[in-house]
Amino acid sequence: MATAPVLVLIDHTDDGAVRPAVRELLALAARFGSVHGVWVDPVAPGADALAELGAHGASQVHVVAPNGEHHLTPVVAEAIAVVVGSVAPRAVLLTNSFEHKEVAGVLGVRTGAGVVVDAAGLEDSDGTFVATKSVFAATWTTRCAIRTPLAVVAVKPNAAEVVATGQGPASVEVHAVDAEAATAAARGVELVERTERAPSGRPDLSSAQVVVVGGRGTDGDFGPVADLADVLGGAVGATRVATDEGWIDHEAQIGQTGVTVSPRLYIGAGVSGAVHHRGGMQSAGTIIAVNNDPEAPIFEIADLGIVGDLRTVLPAATQELRRLLG
Amino acid sequence: MRIVVCVKHVPDLMAERRLVDGHVDRDQGDGTLNELDENAVEAALVLAAEHEAEVVVLTVGPDDAVDAVRRGLQMGADRGVHVLDDALAGSDVFGTATVLAAAVRHVEEDGPVDLVLTGMASLDGLTSMLPAVLAAELGLPQLTLATELALTDGSVQVRRDLDHATEVLRAPLPALVSVTDQSNDPRYPAFAGIMAARKKPVEQLSLEDLGVDASFVGAQGSRTEVLDAAERPPRENRVLITDEGDAGARLAAYLVDHKLV
Lengths: 326, 261
Ligand SMILES: Cc1cc2nc3c(=O)[nH]c(=O)nc-3n(C[C@H](O)[C@H](O)[C@H](O)COP(=O)(O)OP(=O)(O)OC[C@H]3O[C@@H](n4cnc5c(N)ncnc54)[C@H](O)[C@@H]3O)c2cc1C
Ligand SMILES: Nc1ncnc2c1ncn2[C@@H]1O[C@H](COP(=O)(O)O)[C@@H](O)[C@H]1O
Description:
The complex is a heterodimer of chains A (326) and B (261). By secondary structure, chain A is an alpha/beta fold.
C-alpha cells in the first residue's frame, strides 16, 4: 500500500508566482511521504510554477477553483477539504502567515484535524506527527503531538532546508468545489477590494535569511539600515515605533503583532528589544544589536552587542563589507 | 443592538513565564487582560456609543480570568460572562471555541447578538486561530484582522492589512470581527469607570449550564498534546563591545568569521 501523501498549500502571488516560503514546506513534506501541492485559484498554475514545484519535490498539484472568492480563508479551507476528501493525506502543511493560520483553524473545524501553528519543526514519531514550537518570545521550546489521523501544521520560515530534487514539472489534477459549498463557506463575506503590494526588490521579510531592522534610534533615516541590508542581500524590518511614525510601511513591522521572522542573521539598530518585538525575532540564528545605550534590553539576547551610534557603525560596517565582498 | 467581546486573561507579558506540565503556569501571580483584547473592547465601546448597543464581555478561563472581564467593565462595557469549569483545563482552540460559541448562544437567549468582537491574538499562546474557528462554529461571516471597522445599514465593513495585500471586506450582520492593535487606542479606565464596574453584573457559568459535553473540552478533548516543554538555554559566547571607531569593521569581521556572509 502506498503511503498517504502530504499536502502543501501553494502560497502564490495574484499573478501566479510561487512564494519563496513554499519551497521549504515542500522539502519538509518530502520527509514524510509523497508531496502534493494544492493550488486554490480560478487561474491554474502556469508552466513556470509547475516546473518550480516539480523541481522542489511536488509530484502532483491539485488545482481547485472554488466557485467563490478564493482569497477568503474559509473558502480556501473548503477547497483544501475537497482535496483532503479525495486523496486522504496524512498531513496538510501551510505557511505561517496570519491568513494561513486561519485557513488551518477552519480546516480543523471542517475536517476534525488537530492543528498546530507557529511550528519551528516537524517530525514523524512512529506515525504520530510531533511539532516543535517556541513560545513566550522564544524563551521556551515545546513539543506538541497531533493525536488525530490528519495533522494540519502551519510552519514558520526557515524550518527546513530547501532541496532541489531535479524532478520534472508536477502533474495537474483538477478538482471542483460544489458551488453551494463554496457559497456556504464564505458565509456572506464579500471581498470589496484587494490590492496586492508590489514586491520591494528585496527578499520577502518573513522568509529572508538576513534581516536588518531599524527602530526609533534611526530617527526616521532608514538609509543606513537599507544599505546594510542590501550589501548582505537581506530584507529590511522595523519596530512598531518606526512603522507608527510612518518612517516605513506597516508590513515591515516585526514582532508579536507584526511579522514573525527566524532568519539566520538578525541585525537590530536603534532597537531597544521590547518584549513585543522579541516575540517576533528571538528565534533568529545569530542576533546582532547596535544601540547607544549599554543598558538596552536587546543586549541580553544579542550574540554580538555593539554599544555605539548606528549612524556611524552601520555605514562603516557596510563599507567594510563592500570592500570584503567586492 | 448587542455586541459580545471575547477577552482572554493572560499572564503578564513582562513577568517571567513558566510552563508546568505543558501548560502556562497560572499561579505566577499577576495576570492581565490580554492587551490586544483592549482593542476589541475599545472597538465595541465606540460602536456601542454610535449605535446604542449593549456590550457584553465574555471570557473562558480559570478563577483569575474574571479580572479580564472586570477590566472590560471598567473600560465601560455593561456586563460580563465568565465560563469557569475544572474540566476546561488544557483545552485546545477547538474546545475553547466550542465553549465560547455556547456562551454566545446563551447571551442570545436575552435577545439577538449582532456582532462578536475579538482581539487579533492572545499574547501568551499567540495562535490567532480562535476568531476564525469561533466564526466557523457560530456559522457567522468572519472579518478578521480589521484595522478599520464600520457598521452601516445592517452590514459591517472592515479594512485589513495582510502580509502581502490590503483588503476591504463586507458582510451582513450578525458577524464576527477581530481587530488589530492598529485599529484604535484603547481608553484607560477612569476612576468613575472603576467604581461603576464594581456594580456591574458578571454571570458565572459552568459547562453544565451551557449544555456542553465535557468530553469535547479540556486536555482529554484536545486534538493535540504537549509532550514536553523546556526553557531554552541562554545564548552562549555572547560578546558586548563598545565602539571606539572600529565597531563597523568588527561587525563585518564577525559576520565573516561566523560565515554569515
Ligand atoms: C499590544 C502591543 C503590541 C506590540 N507589538 C509590537 C510588535 O509587533 N513589534 C514591535 O516592534 N513593537 C511592538 N509593540 C511596541 C513595543 O512594546 C515597543 O514600544 C517597541 O518595540 C519599541 O520600539 P523601538 O525599539 O524602536 O523604540 P525604543 O524602545 O524607543 O528604543 C529605541 C532604542 O534606540 C536606541 N537609540 C537611540 N538613538 C540611537 C542611535 N543614534 N544609535 C543607536 N541606538 C540608538 C535607544 O537607546 C533605544 O534603546 C507593541 C506594543 C503593544 C502594547
Ligand atoms: N479563553 C478565551 N476566552 C475568551 N476569548 C478568547 C479566549 N482565547 C482567545 N480568545 C479571543 O481570541 C482572540 C485570539 O486568540 P488566540 O487565537 O488564542 O491567539 C483573543 O484576542 C481573544 O479575543
